[in-house]
């Protein structure tokens, strides 16, 4: 079946032929209503207008203002650091590049013109080192190119220098026959330069190590350290002499190579330029290393004079002290003598320092007069001198503070150790004194006790003798049974006294007070007993001290009879018993 669009046909019936013998089939088409509204393409609405483009983003000035802020802060900090030596010291150690910027900005070390010239020279050196090819080159020259042969003489350095001074700077004679190429010459040049650098570096390091050893030894000086310093000085001198001789010989050989190049060696221009640049670089390095060695060697020589002077003074002082006091030793010298000798030598050294200072001032003045007297150059020199003085003063202040802190720490440690030893000695002395006092006190106490015991023994012996005499008398009386007086006395003694004995007055008083306390507690209780409430009232009366104070009639007091009235209560009885106890 064929499907036809609604707006494409207007018929209702269509015939279709199949692949069968003459078979027709009719199909009835119906027009269905469209479910959607048809829109003519020409009548559809136009596209909406494009949105308005966003406004351009505002220009970001954060980087600019950040850079300006950093620049202003750096300038302010540089101005503050210019007036603060402590900040400059910190910058010199932790940020030397910023310290150099401050020095250039305030023209401390050089003027702006000199700084620009130095920057230009540094840029040229950098470009030359960057452009120059230090890699080994393959030497393949044609047979027709004649290369100059360099025969290195084996003569000593001094003889070579004398010959160099005597001969003319550049002879017009043709160069010798070539048997070596430029590569071998460069290798020889490199070996000689490395030898000179290594030997100068060895001499410099030996001097620096010796200077450090002298400084550390002088901080903790002792007589035994003089021998160590003398041995170290001899080793340094031998090592420096050997290293400097080797370096001078290598430098003289290097000068001969330079002379051969200056007299015109036949070689390619590029190879000659590279070799000359390499030679110039090595010469700069050798000059710098040699200057460093000279500086350290000058310091070593100055330190040699200083510690040798100290050693001579100490030896002289020790010799004089031993002459005056033969029994004295270095470790047991008198402090007063040391102060006297130290004061005398200090005055002598102060005089020498004043003379040396005056001579040095005159020498510096003469040196300044020989320099150009231009105002600009003079101001530049003053700036350089002030910068050097400030830098040296800063170093000396730092060294002084460091040594002060170390000395303070050492003194505090020494004081603490001395205090500990003094405390231990004090405690030991105190313990011995206390032990001695204790022994003395025990001796005195034993003596007093012995005397007291002896006295008491004498008293007791006298009492025993008296008692023995009395007992003898009693025994004699007891033995006299026929005596009427004895029988009368024995009859008067009660039976309980015979059985229990007689109690002391103190015991009787104690028992009386106990009885009185119990009687007061039960004062309200009758003889035949009472309720618990009466016991409580009686105890409460005793606790509150409600005591009945009653008098004794005069007649009863004066009567000699022991018969008491029958109507007496507990308080009356206690009153009469107390009276009898007092009587």
TrEMBL record:
InterPro entries: MIC60. GO terms for cellular component: MICOS complex. One of its GO terms (biological process) is cristae formation. The keyword Methyltransferase does not apply. It is found in: Mitochondrion inner membrane. Its main location: mitochondrion. It comes from the Eukaryota. Keywords: Membrane, Mitochondrion, Mitochondrion inner membrane, Transmembrane, Transmembrane helix. Pfam families: Mitofilin (PF09731). It is a single-pass membrane protein. Component of the MICOS complex, a large protein complex of the mitochondrial inner membrane that plays crucial roles in the maintenance of crista junctions, inner membrane architecture, and formation of contact sites to the outer membrane. Component of the mitochondrial contact site and cristae organizing system (MICOS) complex. Belongs to the MICOS complex subunit Mic60 family. This is MICOS complex subunit MIC60. The gene is LOC114248780.
């Amino acid at each position: 079946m064929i499907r036809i669009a609604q707006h494409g046909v207007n018929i209702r019936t269509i015939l279709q032929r199949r692949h069968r013998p003459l078979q027709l089939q009719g199909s009835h088409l119906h027009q269905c209503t469209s479910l959607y509204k048809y829109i003519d393409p020409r009548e559809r609405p136009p596209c909406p207008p494009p949105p308005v483009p966003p406004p351009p983003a505002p220009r970001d000035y954060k980087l600019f203002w950040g850079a300006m802020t950093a620049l202003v802060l750096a300038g302010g900090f540089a101005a503050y650091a210019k007036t603060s030596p402590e900040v400059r010291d910190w910058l010199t150690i932790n940020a030397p590049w910023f310290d150099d910027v401050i020095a250039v900005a305030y023209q401390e070390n050089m003027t702006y013109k000199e700084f620009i010239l130095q920057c230009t020279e540094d840029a040229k050196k950098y470009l030359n080192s960057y452009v120059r090819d230090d890699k080994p080159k393959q030497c393949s020259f044609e047979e027709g190119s004649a290369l100059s042969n360099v025969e290195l003489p084996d003569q000593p350095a001094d003889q070579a220098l004398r010959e160099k001074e005597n001969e003319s700077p550049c002879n017009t004679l043709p160069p010798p026959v070539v048997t070596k190429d430029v590569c071998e010459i460069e290798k020889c040049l490199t070996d000689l330069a490395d030898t000179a650098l290594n030997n100068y570096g060895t001499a410099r390091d030996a001097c620096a190590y010796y200077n450090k050893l002298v400084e550390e030894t002088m901080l903790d000086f002792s007589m035994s350290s003089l021998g160590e310093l003398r041995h170290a000085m001899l080793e340094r001198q031998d090592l420096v002499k050997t290293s400097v001789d080797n370096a001078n010989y290598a430098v003289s050989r290097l000068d001969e190579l330079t002379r051969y190049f200056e007299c015109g060696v036949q070689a390619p221009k590029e190879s000659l330029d590279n070799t000359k640049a390499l030679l110039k670089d090595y010469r700069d390095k050798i000059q710098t290393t040699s200057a460093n060695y000279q500086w350290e060697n000058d310091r070593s020589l100055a330190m040699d004079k200083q510690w040798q002077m100290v050693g001579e003074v100490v030896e002289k002082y020790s010799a004089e002290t031993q002459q005056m006091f033969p029994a004295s030793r270095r470790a047991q010298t008198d402090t007063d003598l040391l102060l006297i000798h130290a004061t005398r030598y200090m005055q002598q050294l102060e005089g020498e320092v004043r003379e040396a200072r005056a001579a040095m001032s005159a020498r510096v003045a003469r040196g300044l007069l020989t320099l150009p007297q231009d105002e600009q150059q003079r101001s530049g020199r003053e700036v350089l001198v002030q910068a050097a003085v400030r830098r040296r003063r800063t170093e000396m202040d730092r060294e002084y503070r460091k040594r002060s802190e170390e000395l303070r720490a050492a003194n505090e440690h020494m004081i603490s150790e001395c205090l500990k030893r003094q405390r231990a000695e004090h405690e030991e002395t105190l313990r011995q004194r206390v032990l001695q006092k204790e022994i003395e006190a025990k001796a005195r106490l034993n003596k007093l006790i012995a005397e007291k015991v002896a006295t008491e023994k004498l008293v007791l012996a006298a009492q025993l003798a008296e008692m023995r005499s009395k007992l003898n008398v009693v025994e004699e009386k007891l033995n006299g049974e026929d005596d009427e007086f004895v029988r009368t006395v024995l009859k008067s003694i009660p039976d309980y006294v015979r059985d229990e004995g007689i109690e002391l007055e103190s015991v009787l008083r104690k028992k009386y007070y106990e009885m009185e306390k119990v009687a007061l507690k039960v004062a309200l209780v009758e003889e035949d007993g009472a309720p618990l409430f009466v016991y409580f009232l009686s105890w409460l009366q005793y606790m509150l001290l409600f005591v009945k104070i009653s008098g004794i009639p005069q007649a009863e007091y004066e009567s000699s009879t022991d018969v008491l009235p029958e109507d007496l209560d507990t308080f009356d009885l206690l009153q009469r018993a107390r009276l009898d106890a007092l009587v």
